[in-house]
Design a protein that fits this description.
With 251 residues, this protein is α+β, with helices and mostly antiparallel strands. The protein contains 4 helices and 15 strands. It has a single domain, classed as Creatinase/methionine aminopeptidase superfamily (Creatine Amidinohydrolase). Helix 1 runs antiparallel to helix 2 and helix 3 runs antiparallel to helix 4. It binds 2-amino-4-trifluoromethylsulfanyl-butyric acid and cobalt (II) ion (CO).
Length: 251
């Protein structure tokens, strides 16, 4: 069942997502050759607790860290560890918090040092696909318009959309209805209504869309070893149009 949020609840979710984006801004400054993903994770946990919030992913279904850090061919859910980032890597950083009972969830993919031309294109196209999706989150629109916009933009640029993982409703739980796929036909499914809040999170592979799971049960990689990027916003459908939570504008 879809839980629509009141304007007051949306303000609380904006606060939670503000903490998430502050953490991601800090991570962006830290990302450089030599830093380990475990160091990024420690920074994130400290910042979240300093803000009076709780890391949302830590212990979620047994997940062992605050962040997901997904390097190169890792699509999502990479577990922070002791391997140092190197120049030319890309790293997806996904962060979730609970603040005053409401969840915030967002992700960005960063280049470590100067990205290769194909890596830079992959990051740009994935981020653009998320911004196009945001534009579809208007009252009266259709849920499937979101995924259709992502898929169209990604495939136009010769990349592929991961099917195994989807975006989700978010609120007093990390994952609520509805599921939000990053692919599909436009004009289908339920009408979008004021008060719907969803986390949209395109996962885009430079090669084929197939996924392979590591034996840790979390790390999802591209089967062909190609690079993968991930961006995520929590977004509210409001009478004034889409509102990206935790950001002043969809920067
Ligand atoms: N943004 C991801 C999601 O919404 C991150 C979840 S990581 C987990 O599913 F560990 F909490 F599962
Ligand atoms: Co999410």
């Amino acid at each position: 069942m879809v839980q629509l949020k009141t304007p007051a609840e949306i303000e609380l979710m904006d606060e939670a997502n503000r903490i998430v984006h502050r953490v991601l801004d800090g991570i962006e400054r830290l990302v450089a050759p030599g830093i380990t993903t475990r160091e990024l994770d420690r920074f994130a946990e400290a910042e979240i607790r300093k803000a009076g919030a709780i890391p949302a992913f830590l212990n979620y279904r047994g997940y062992p860290a605050t962040l997901c850090t997904s390097v190169n061919d890792v699509i999502i859910h990479g577990i922070p560890g002791d391997v140092a980032l190197a120049a030319g890597d890309i790293v997806g950083v996904d962060c979730g918090v609970v603040f005053n009972g409401y969840y915030g969830d967002a992700a960005r993919t960063f280049a470590v040092g100067r990205p290769s031309e194909p890596a830079a294109r992959l990051l740009a196209v994935t981020r653009e696909s998320l911004l196009l999706a945001v534009g579809k989150l208007v009252p009266g629109g259709r849920l499937s318009d979101v995924g259709a916009a992502v898929q169209r933009h990604v495939e136009e640029h010769g990349f592929s959309v991961v099917r195994e993982f989807v975006g989700h409703g978010i609120g007093t739980s990390l994952h609520e209805d509805p599921q939000v796929p990053n692919y599909g036909q436009p004009g289908r499914g339920p009408r979008l209504r004021e008060g719907l809040v969803v986390a949209v999170e395109p996962m885009v592979n430079a090669g084929g869309p197939e996924v392979s799971m590591d034996r840790d049960g979390w790390t999802a990689r591209t089967r062909d070893g190609s690079l993968s990027a991930h961006f995520e916003f929590s977004i509210a459908v409001t009478a004034e149009g889409p509102r990206v939570l935790g950001l002043e504008v969809a920067a």
